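User:
Care to share a sequence and structure tokens?

Assistant:
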Amino acid sequence: MKKMKNKILAIIPAAGIGERFLSNEPKQYFKVDDSTLIEKTISIFSSCELISKIIIPIHQDDKNIQDQDFYNNSNIKYVDGGETRAKSVLNALESEDLTHYDFILTHDVARPNISEEDIRTLIEEIQNKGADCSFFFTPISESIKKISSKEDITLNKEDYYLVQTPQICNTEKLYTALKTCVKDGINIPDESFVMEKMNYVLTRIKGSSANIKVTYPADIDLLKKFNTRVGTGFDLHTYLPGNGFLLGGYFIECDHSINAHSDGDVLLHSIADAILGASALGDIGIFFTDTDAANKNLDSKTIIDFCLEEISKLDLEIFNIDVTIICETPKIYPSRQAILSSLSKILKIDQSNIGLKATTSEKIGIIGENKAIAVQTALNLITKK
């Protein structure tokens, strides 16, 4: 890919008042995880080295923009927005010397789930295909009908798709197309529309369903589900002769006990490490050392309670969890439902969000010799609802 220094101008309209969002403040200033939607969106573009400058059209009565963490960024310019998105973009274009830019990249301020990689992909698309405009799209999965005064008509969803931002256009051609369509009073949903109206060359790339546009209050919950943190955990303990041990808070009767400083619940230990990892807090050993006498025979539910309390402080909660128990004996299946029930209570999540599997190590290594048990955990944390 050729170098794009001083060649790409990003325009992110933020002059809307978001009437459908049903809030006292415009939706772009709604906070998610201690950052506003506009802060999340702008941070991605401001950190992308391929973007030369950002222009944000804002409402003339905007009282919030000066409170945003990016406000004093010297690479960001503010202009008055227009009555429509199209007029806001046009105002931005007319405020700048466009001869400095090969392309204009536009994006919805209420789509914070975009990534720098998406931006790079879009730039490469328009360069490699020699197009005048490139944009993201997603297929339609639901049935669709056309509203009619007589009777609704079912359409073939394969003939349609949903259009997303960001979109990237040839600078000169976008300015010409946008100015023409605005002058003609045409209703303009996005930049790809005006490029299409002028019969310019367009290409599309399949986008992600995670790149949602926040329009209604319920979209915030959906946005949070896509904003997940992934954690993994692993723990292994050797066996001692005994009459059973705890696994996920449930006591399994067998010929083994666990060699451990605490109560040796290898399943809860693995989950705890996954929680701490996903929240960037470290691992169990930082908080519960095996050299501390106070942790001797410690109930592992105490460790989980600590982990849940810590992620709660970060406004996070467990969305789902998947664990794999690895051992030769005991057989896990007869106790599977009891373990699931115990985990549900301890983790405070529904059983439908817990995956529990068991396997052997095919007689390989210390586990295969029936001298140890291990657990591998993966989980997702999401922002609290």
